[in-house]
Design a protein that fits this description.
This protein is an alpha+beta fold. It has a single domain, classed as 3-Layer(aba) Sandwich (Bit1). It is built from four helices and five strands; from the N terminus they run βααβαββαβ. Strands 3-4-1-2-5 form a five-stranded mixed beta sheet, with helices on both faces. The longest helix has 26 residues.
Length: 127
Amino acid sequence: MLVKQVIVVRKDLKMRRGKEIAQGSHASIAFLSFLARKSLLSAKPIELTLAQTEWINGIFKKVCLQVNSEQELLDIHEKALSKGLDVHLIKDSGLTEFNGIATITCLAIGPDEDSKIDEVTGTLSLY
């Protein structure tokens, strides 16, 4: 099974490179953070899908893609949800950029099977 995670970043924000990297990092780890919080609240062990297990035990394949607006990012988010994919939006608090305004910067889809994610992101440009 070929498995990957896709990070989609908003280029229109013109974030500093370090901010982009931090936001993408938040997106990449978001699925594990969500599962860990869920596990703590329920006192049950973390349950990974087969694809997530393959990704963690494999090479952590990530692909970074770009969009040019918040609406494009939200459209990708909705499309991924409608396909049943695990997707996490990242909203920056605005403390160091964006003039104190909380701003949606990026999202992560997966990890999941390449073909499932490609149905949602296959037309986007590489970052």
